Amino acid sequence: MTKLYTNARLISIHHYHAEDKLVLGFEGLPEREFTSVVDFSLNGFYPHNILFDIYEYDLSNLPPRIAAEFPNLSYYIHSGENWQIFHLSPQAGMGGIIVCATF
Q: How far is CA 45 from CA 13, 48, 75, 77, 94, in A?
């Protein structure tokens, strides 16, 4: 697994509602684009936003601690459908989750 965003400094967030797209901008790294975005929960955007990394899960391997930390995931967990869930693990500043539809 490539850890491209380990210790990455997050500098921008762009939400394109009509396109169901979320784009994160990083200092010195390529942007990370998420498509088919159905939900996201981002906790605080501060002057210093450093990530441990971005982790990808589906419902079968989503850690219980992440499900407990983000109550909005309850709907997706009990929906009977599969979802792609990205966890932005913060080292400093912003963290959160992004939920994308799978087709």
A: 9, 8, 25, 27, 5
Q: What digits encode the pLDDT tens for the residues 1-49? A: 456 788 999 999 999 999 999 999 999 999 999 999 999 999 988 888 9
Spatial distance between the Cα atoms of 15 and 21, rounded to a whole number of angstroms: 6
State the Cα–Cα distance between residues 66 and 50, nearest whole angstrom. 19
Q: Are 100 and 34 in contact (CB under 8 A)?
A: yes
Query: Which residue, 99, 45, 34, is CA-closest to 70?
Result: 99
Helix (H) or strand (E) holding 66: helix 64-69
What are the φ/ψ torsions at residue 81 (nearest 5 degrees)? -110, 165
* Residue 51 parent element (H or E): strand 50-57
Considering just the CA atoms, what is the radius of gyration of the chain in Å? 13
Q: What is the DSSP letter of 48?
A: -
